[in-house]
Amino acid sequence: MKQISGNKLLVKALKEEGVEVVFGYPGACTINISDELYKQNEIAVVLPRHEQALVHEADAYARTTGKVGVCLVTSGPGATNLVTGLATANYDSVPLVCFTGQVERHLIGNDAFQEVDIVGITRSITKYGVTVKNREDLGRIIKEAFYIARTGRPGPVLIDLPKDVMSELGSAEYPKTVNIRGYKPNTNVHIGQLKKAIKMLNNAKKPLFLAGGGVNIARANKLFQEVAEKTQVPVVTTVMGRGSIPTNHPLFIGNLGMHGSYAANMAVSSCDVLFSIGTRFNDRITGKLHAFAPNAQIIHIDIDTASISRNIHVDVPIVADAKEAVEKMAEYVENCHTEKWLSEIAQWKKEHPLLMRPSSLSPMDILKEINTQFDEAIIVTDVGQHQMLVSQYAEITEKKQLIMSGGLGTMGYGFPGAIGAKIGNPDKPVIAISGDGGMQMNIQEFATAVLEELPVIACVFNNEYLGMVRQWQKLFYGKRYAMTNLRSGALSRRTEGEQYPEYTPDFVKLAESYGAKGIRVTKKEEIAAAFEEARKNTKTPTLIEFIIDPEEMVYPMIKPGGTLEDMIMDC
Fold it and tell me: Which residue in the list 468, 553, 557, 567 is annotated as catalytic?
């Protein structure tokens, strides 16, 4: 029987798994894999400028296509640069298979050059990690990695590849099937539990659906909308669940949580049955645990057994894939006669709508223009004030998708995420929205976007501060803006009449230095033209810098340690 090297088997395995793109950065321990990838034409290879950006790009590619994202990096620092991205993907249930180079087996444990125990380092932030010790196990391990990454609750898997194992000759066979003892993810719905939950829903006077990121991950959006319409039960979402039902749908109330809408938070506090699907009930949506949905019986559908009753005790647990569960629900649910309840919610919306103060250039004006100009788009945010504003004001419909780092809150995700999304969806407009802080964490990816000819629109909300931290400092720390002013030194204290230095960098010039288009917007009247100009670029990325007043704040906001009813509406 023909024998081939481990490097050749890896490339064969990628083809067998239907991999179309590998996001890779080379090094001494993976140079032979790079060579094998060079010899074939079926799999595209993208060369980012930093491994952290690389894993974010693979992550967003996976989120927006539903495919497994694939990374390839070398040993040592190449591998450790994946850590933040692996944690990001793990929190948000993103299927990745990440291959890391490793020194030869006889050097492992000897503090060899560029040797780290990457499996040990990442054990708590991956779904599974393994070092391949024997060449004959390579094919099976790769097959299992892809299966583990995409089944059950999806997540990142790391495979560490010692260089000598990959050079060894062995079988050319790649397994067709997977059988892992101890890993048998359950997706089937327990009909008895589901019927119990639906009966509870039918008997409720104030029922409420809470849709989390699991609905989007399972791509159960259309089915969920059908269930909501059949029952006439209103819907709130987590930030990650936004888009579970179109945001312009009459049954959609808004996001709940720390920066949720008044109506959404009040609905959770007042409902008598909370039917939640695909959410972990983390602290950003619950506030004080004992005061969360105090009047409600709680139903929880989740693919992950460990997520049920971990943070919030639930009355009816259902372990199931969100899509399969919602599909079954559609067969049994009926109208819940919620007219009076919907009227009460409508009054809350009327009394406390989402609004921003008028200004010369408001983030709401920018997001309104995006809503107007883009019927179809993928919007990728970074982390901070702009992220919460996007989650409040961006319209997400059947043709629009919103992705972000929700669980980990990773600054620097937005721009590389947009690149990965565009690579996976070349025919869709892709818009990155970042703050001036987050954009600088992976701005080197303009080189990647230019060379790959990706017409991503990168919006930078430049308020000269790390805005979300500054907001806390303004509200709760006596306006002591320590380490947040990006024009001054970390602890500089301006005396009266003293001027800060000029802001650096000049984002427009920096974008242009990479070969991208740069536009600066200082007035509301310039917004529409800037996006129109950006849309003309079909081969190069465009950076639009919006000069934002640092005093722009994100409201509502839950007080630290408060309940969903302890909302700061404005100040």
Answer: 468
